[in-house]
């Protein structure tokens, strides 16, 4: 696994990351980490790698677009001095184009999304060991659906920037696409965005796989 003892991993994102976490930054005991995929990741790492002390921090805030996240990025991500930054943003950038189409300033265009992501990646790489870039997604198997098609543009931007900057790339959209060949999206989220515990587990599993997580790990000694 890529994480070392006493590394700090900060999850930056929107409601999919937040999921009821303490605001603006959640970590530690009780439900401060929320109930989303960051909490499942923390559970799995502590269960399988008991010899490691990894500090996981949830810096997700519900409703954020990439513009909103960038505005608080210094305070809620960089100033925490993380060794790893995980970014999951973009769903609201697209969603606002469809649920509030008359409010053009609520959404974020692909061009602005790419600029915002570049700033986040570059500033994080300047201080951290690495960046884990995850895609936004829409739980819709029909790729011709208007919002699903638009979301793919943002997914492709993430893939291209991850390759350009050498980020660890986690494609949540592709993961859900594979899963929905077997199960309907209603099993995970009626609004096709906010995952239940099954979805959070699927996302954590995909994220951990890209970080070298070994389910058969046995602590030495």
Molecular structure report:
The protein has 221 residues and is of the alpha/beta class. The protein has one domain: Rossmann fold, CATH 3.40.50. It has 8 helices and 5 strands, in the order E-H-H-E-H-E-H-H-E-H-E-H-H. It has a 5-stranded parallel β-sheet with strand order 2-1-3-4-5, sandwiched between helices. Helix 5 runs parallel beside helix 6.
| Portion in strands | 5-15%
- Please work out how many helical segments DSSP would assign: 8
* Number of beta-strand segments: 5
- Write down the CATH class: Alpha Beta
Tell me, what's the shape? Answer: globular
Helix content: 40-55%
The major sheet is characterized as: 5 strands, parallel
Category from helices, strands and their pairing: alpha/beta
CATH H-level name... which superfamily?
A: SGNH hydrolase
Q: How do the helices and strands follow one another from N- to C-terminus?
A: EHHEHEHHEHEHH
| Through-space gap between termini | 18 Å
Q: Do you know the CATH topology?
A: Rossmann fold
Describe this protein with a few key phrases:
SGNH_hydro, single chain, five-stranded parallel β-sheet, hydrolase activity, alpha/beta, Ester_Hydrolysis_Enzymes, Rossmann fold, 221 residues
Summarize the structure.
One of its GO terms (molecular function) is hydrolase activity. By secondary structure, the chain is of the alpha/beta class. Helices cover 43% and strands 11% of the residues.
